[in-house]
Amino acid sequence: MSRTSDLLLTALAPAVWGSTYLVTTEALPAGYPVTLAALRALPAGLLVLAITRCLPPRAWLGRVFLLGSFNFALFWVLLFMAAYRLPGGVAATLGSLQAMMVILMARGWLGTPIRAGALAAAATGVLGVALLLIGPDAALDPVGIAAGLGGAASMAAGTVLSRKWQPPVSPLSFTAWQLTAGGLILAPLALFLEPALPPLSATNLAGLVWLGLIGAAATYALWFRGVARIGPGAVSMLGMMSPVTAVLLGWVVAGQSLSLLQGLGALIVLGSVLAGQGASRPTAPAPARPQPRPDPAGGTFRNRAGAFPAMPGTSPFPHVLAHRTEKRP
Hints:
Elements: H1 3-17, H2 20-27, H3 33-52, H4 61-85, H5 88-96, H6 98-109, H7 116-133, H8 142-164, H9 171-193, H10 202-230, H11 232-238, H12 241-252, H13 260-280, E1 300-303, E2 306-308, H14 317-323, E3 326-328
Antiparallel strand pairs: 1-2, 1-3
Helix pairs in contact: 1-10, 1-12, 2-10, 3-4, 3-9, 3-10, 4-5, 4-8, 4-9, 5-7, 5-8, 6-8, 6-11, 7-13, 9-10, 10-11, 11-13
């Protein structure tokens, strides 16, 4: 499959994640962030585990629980904290810093070179998200800002480590492992920190099914597949598509207004995503020149095909005359 096809498939994940805010506010009961995060992760993870029938080996359990914490448990809890304490635009702008964090973390953990073009594209994307979402009455809460930055760092770490630790299983199985681990971390926290949920309606259950099976299992499988195939830097830039989708859904479905400044911000985000893909594309290494090897007689023969050792006990001169080679001491 071509790189363009991989990018388009991976971009479906943040496009679907843009529906999370609308589904949460319209279809789920308010005030149960940890419980809803656990219900989003654990049932979906167990269901996909039952379908794939692929359990992580014992040696992988530590990595799986760490990844499940970064990508789901810690990330979702901090995301909800930021959403409750900050305006949605401020929280989303802090989350968009994830792309820059991924570039820096990939340098340390993967040895990926830092490209100025990729950093510039990520910074421009953050500006576009700010224009798209932040209003003039945006309030800044220190705890909310810390939660937003922590959530971005958690997801960035999970994205880079998902590339560093690649098990020989399908992306769907890898996603199921992490969802289940994240849900197992969140479930006791929900029982300890929050009251019991009220009886769930059909709308509530439909919202949880959407966020769990589509917004978590299916989309994160595409996300981790993209991380493995096109790299964490390029994939993290695609995450900026999420706020664009959220604003468009709010405009089309909820009847929210869309200003000229927001439209400009959306265009800047899309442009930065495209520029980031070009800046993150790996460069092909230059072909290595053949290196001469010493022959047993103390020299090296070279002709137009390259260098090769001389056979011991033979005279090089007939070969030199026939193939225009030379013996170099």
